[in-house]
Amino acid sequence: MLDNFNRLVLANIGMLLDGLGVTLYICFCAFALSIVLGMLACMVRMWVPQLRFVAIAYIEFCRATPILVQLLWVNYVWPDLFGFPETAMQAGILALALQSSGYLAETFRAGFEGLPKGQREAALAVGLSRWRIVTRIEAPQALLVVAPLMINQLAVVVKSSTLVSVISNPDLMYQALKIVNQWYEPIEVLTVVALTYFIVLFSLSSIANHFYVRFQTKYGLAAGT
Amino acid sequence: MFTYLASTFDPGLLWEYRETLLQGLQQNLIIFFQSAVLAVLLAFVVGNARASRSRPVRWMAICYSEFFRNTPEYVLLVWIYFVVPLIISKMIGSRAGFSPHVAAVLGLGVAYSGFLSETVRAGLRSVPLGHAEAATALGLSPFATFRRIVLPQAIRRMLPEATNQMISLFKSTTIVSLISVHDILYQVSVISSSEMRPIPLYTGVALLYCLIIILATYLLNRLTDRWRRRGWA
Amino acid sequence: MSAIIETRDLRKSFGAVEVLRGISLSVAQGTVVSLIGASGSGKSTFLRCLNYLEQPTSGAIIIDGDVLEATPASNARQDRKTITRIRTKLGMVFQQFNLWPHMTVLQNVTEALTQVKRTPAKEAAEIARHFLQKVNLIAKQDAYPSRLSGGQQQRVAIARALAMQPKVMLFDEATSSLDPELTGEVLQVMRDLAQDGMTMLVVTHEMGFARDASDRVLFLHEGRIEEDGTAAQVFGAPNSERCQRFIASSLK
Prior knowledge:
The complex is a heterotrimer.
Chain A: H1 2-10, H2 13-47, H3 52-64, H4 67-76, H5 78-82, H6 88-113, H7 117-125, H8 130-161, H9 172-183, H10 186-219
Chain B: H1 2-9, H2 11-16, H3 18-49, H4 55-69, H5 73-92, H6 100-125, H7 129-137, H8 142-172, H9 184-195, H10 198-230
Helix pairs in contact in B: 3-6, 3-9, 4-6, 5-6, 6-8, 7-8, 8-10, 9-10
Chain C: E1 3-14, E2 17-28, E3 32-36, H1 43-50, E4 58-63, E5 66-70, H2 77-89, E6 90-93, H3 105-115, H4 121-134, H5 150-163, E7 168-172, H6 180-195, E8 199-203, H7 207-213, E9 216-221, E10 224-229, H8 231-236, H9 241-251
Parallel strand pairs in C: 3-8, 3-9, 6-7, 7-8
Antiparallel strand pairs in C: 1-2, 1-4, 4-5, 9-10
Helix pairs in contact in C: 3-4, 3-5, 4-5, 5-6
């Protein structure tokens, strides 16, 4: 067992670490892009009545389509239709970002619309302008509500990122399966990879939970005052 | 431009292969129902264990749900398909193996039992202790108290979240194609590599899923709303 | 004495329901006016119309010389400036306090000073501390609202409104969501303010406050002023039978 571990995992540790690097890179890019897209979709949905329908269709499509289907769709269909993405890496990032942006858009909206009405009224009553109410009263509070949810969404992106190996992105999962196919000894490598993902995801959800509890106790956001 | 689009999207291709595709979808549905049943059963066991008085039982339940909630489904699926049979073989001393179908049901079942056990726990905890005490005070047995007083209320609280979980489970069934279960996505990839025309197939399957999920979400929400209005869920 | 608040035939409808059915009122500077009446009588809506949290359907509001006519076409851009000016002249205290939870007590009070009045930060903090002193909460200036009791939160909300140095203070059931043992501290701050000569419009269920602390009491019924007089008159010998019954049942 230990022998196998040395032979399969330690001997290939460089490959696995490269894979982890690719995974993290893809997740980071996808998440950053999805924040931008999600914010955009959310703002259009809330504040641009003429395009509201388009935003809803976009959000619903992103959320309702399984990530693997989206991934294959973006990878095989988009290049012919739109001329991009040009690489599997871009396709992976784009598909993950699309999916995640749909969820984030709804998260952002809930953050804004969940604020008690009195918050805005109190700001109006002292004469704050609409813009200041959004930037100084509503957005900061929405962010406090939304931040833990965003970290959870990042965890979802990491989870889904295992699938980019399917379109041969050399991520952690891809490298693991490559080693498995080389040696036909899956136990050690797959277990180590599973535990690696578990550690990353567990840390993310612990951080999210930590912030959630902290914001609740410090600012009492649930109290609705 | 328009003719180009029409020719690339060409729904005729979908129609030509409708039987194969529907057979694939049927596989997805079967796996969905089987793993959903497994997930719900496990979730109730684990969710109750998390409320147990015994500390070790509670800890095991926490580890179980944290592990399965925080491991990607694809990794679990591959692990169960490749690793678990080997471990079993070593233990019983002869070759054992799963069909891809069994591995798919097991993988998705345990993965979602992790999420669902949280839902079950939250639902059970949401029932005020006083309700159970009132029932006990009236002489109901512990089992009757649980079944007739606690459970109905808990299920009502669980329903919206459980519905969401079921919908993601259905979406997740697409990944079983990766351990070569002959589901719809598997058929699509086979057909599109033989026909060399990925656009209509992948677009079609994306839209199909989109439609199914939106419709299912809508119907499930209406159903749970109706149950709630009738007051029995 | 000149009127600081005047309304002329103020009306407000929510859909088909007319909540305010023509309220004409003139309040002299330095007067403390209590508005009483059953729930749904329109007293809160009236207060919220004064600073345009609700837009009146018709009628006019004149606050310290600023005139706002509510016409179907109003609330256009030129009105915005007037509305903001009026809002800075009216301090409002809400039933739910509505402190901003992501800001400390001090920041809650300085926010409008720096953002609306463009007071330099240092000066704003000084003003804020002065008013926090006044409501006896200077010790809590760096705490977040979630750490305060309801009574303390409401006193901060009063300081927040006072810091803008308004001409008039509006109290919208300021003690209704407080536990009985916490209403006293808030009412005391309100009494002190009245003593200092602040003009106040107070929507309240606290009959004690209405009777002892106000110069003038209005009884509203179904969107109209049904009784208007000094506290002694309204509580001692109201003309309207409805008002009589309302007071009798509230004082029980």
